[in-house]
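Onboarding guide, step 5: your first structure request.
Type a short instruction followed by the sequence, for example:

Predict the 3D structure of this protein.
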Amino acid sequence: MTQPDVFKALLLIARPAAGKSEIIDYLMSLPDEERRVNYHIGNFSVIDDFPMLWTWFEEDDILTRLGYPRLHTNPEGSFKAYYLWDLLIERICLDYAKYRRDYPEVNTAIIEFSRGSEHGGYLRAFEHLSDTVIKDLAILYVDVSWEESLRKNRKRFNPDRPDSILEHGLSDDKLEQLYKDVDWDIINKGQPDFITIKGVQVPYVIFENHDDVTSGRGAALGSRLHTCLATLWQHYR
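The system replies with structure tokens like these:
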């Protein structure tokens, strides 16, 4: 069987508002052949934990209105237990298993989430990745500073569309609490090109976005993404 020329699972991680969703939006805009040849992304589906957790907030608000206890969150908008962050990763893995069942070879799943050190970081999240995900995985880490995450979080937030992938946001206080500190540099320290997840060497590349090439969705984004994914593909294949 001919080896597929696309990533099977591409994990896109970063601080909130770093540019992950903008990268996905850019990839969606490309013709299929251009996306496959230049970026090694096939016809793809996105598995993002934001819609999952937003559903919890909505359901809890409904339960409050009906006079019943909230299941996942408190009225202040925080999870009632840390293990719910683990549940989101397990849910992602379940969705990936179903996706791979239906598209066994040629398509790409782009998995997206953010994790800060306050709720266990990427180290804790990676512990909950399934073997099925890990064996198919490559990682694109979008690197921005805390200050840039804060700036773009403020800029993108649309109070009329708080459930929107491209327009949701957090309060400054909550963003600082949850995401100011991240553990990515600790995880990849001394491990160029690959990190170890459950004993498996998983390739990664860092997409530097301190100058915000993602907001414009233009040639600068396309060029940098091409360079990053070409390098990642060499390690992945």
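Each response can be followed by summary notes, for example: The first strand starts at residue 9 and ends at 14.
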